[in-house]
Amino acid sequence: MSIRPAKHARDASSEPFSSSKRRRIERSQPVRFLILSDTHGVDLPKNLPGCDVVLHCGDLTEDGRPESISAALQALGKIEAKLKLVIAGNHEISLDKAYWSSQGGAEADVEWAHALISPDPSSEASINGVTFLSEGTHTFTLPCDATFSIYASPYTPAYLRYGLSAFQYPSNEDRFNPPGVTPSWATNTATEASTIPNGVDIVMTHGPSKYVLDLTDDDISAGCEHLRRAIARVKPRLHCFGHIHHVPRTWCYEAHRLDYGGDSELDGDAESIRSVIKDYVGNNQARKNGFRGLNPGPAQAFRDSKQTLCVNAAMEGEKGVLEHPPWRVDLELDSSVPSLSFLIVHPQPNKTYHNMTTSSSLVPYTPSTRPTSTSLIPARLFTHQTGTALATQLLYRLLFDFLNRLLSSLHRLASRRMTSWLDCKLQERRHRHDELDGLQIVNEVGRLQGFVTCPLSGRGLDSRAKAWGPPMWVQGVLEGIESGRMVERDFWIHTHGD
After folding, report:
1. Which top CATH class is 2-354?
2. Residue 189 and residue 155: Cα distance in Å, rounded?
3. Residue 337 backbone dihedrals phi, psi, to 5 degrees
4. Which positions fall inside the Calcineurin-like phosphoesterase domain (predicted)?
5. Rounded to two decimals, what is the model's pTM?
6. Domain ranges of the chain
7. Mapping DSSP to helix (H, G, I), strand (E, B) and coil, where does residue 316 land?
């Protein structure tokens, strides 16, 4: 399994994920995400649930020194997951060169910290299977062929009352939206990397958006309104963050679902968020399970809608204590397996791709390196992994078809055998019934004249009988049969043996 970045970064102004520009097999893959944030160098719980992808929303450390970052990466390396994505937070101060230098830090520490998180195979992050994301949009493909795009940013608005820290910006600066969206009172400072593009699946930021799980201990809403405006514009499936954390409070165990439709107003500005649905998760249930997650009802409502799920995954409560379990979220993601007859490739400039592939030993053929005029897939895009994925899918379909045919044959054979057995048993029963009806043993005995001795009791004809006829014991049998207390079969067994 490997992660390979492509050559280009993503063009934020384009919409490469729209349905009009991609032709994929209409399949969805359930992917399980485990979301953490604000662990601050504390030992992670040992009962973390299994997952496909780990998302850490920043503040891995308390002091932000390179040594602490290294220890945090080693702790994340112990989590079992196919993919581990991490961003910095305002506590990772040695990764923010400007802030670190302003505090008198050595430039060598900044270089050391960045070397720890680099994509180089020998870095601390790579050794522990961690992908440290810079600000921007990235695309990943999992071994199950599920593909998702994720926007990541470590930046949060600065509030003087709480002091300055790393990766912060003034609250009147909009770094998440294109210029046409920024209100007149704010300054647009967005770059190609910092702008959240349309069509992205997941937004992972260190801080929350305005009025969404952003209340501080003193009931101040510390979220970013520009980020909220970007979320309302992009409408991702998931927005995960941290940054706001304190001792356990009720809202900490809530998830917010943003429902869209129509235009509403936020502080005098129009936005497309129609309502914010708050889903409560019990404290005891979360601690018992080792994670927080939506209850079945809200989870089904989320799957059936186009809402955005917002979760605050901050784990620290009291200083140095991880009081809040992480979040576990299941998302249905599109499959990346292409269809040869429908694939239309639109190369996107300035876009970052990452591929995670399993063993490539299954390669039924090697495509020509020379493109043909009838080829729907450019040769440079028809990679070794594409052939492997197509062959694997074909093998699964053949196996599934074979099992279906086998089960159908067994079902038909079993049905015929059961029908034949039932017919045989019914025929035997009818035959025995006909034999018993043919004996008519009681009627034959009843017509005998001079039969004066009972074969059961040895007693003779009743002396009170006025004329010859059936003995009294035969009359008793006949009466028993008529009243339903005896049948001819009973008489036959007692007189002749079974």
Report:
1. alpha beta
2. 13
3. -70, 120
4. 32-246
5. 0.65
6. 2-354, 441-498
7. strand
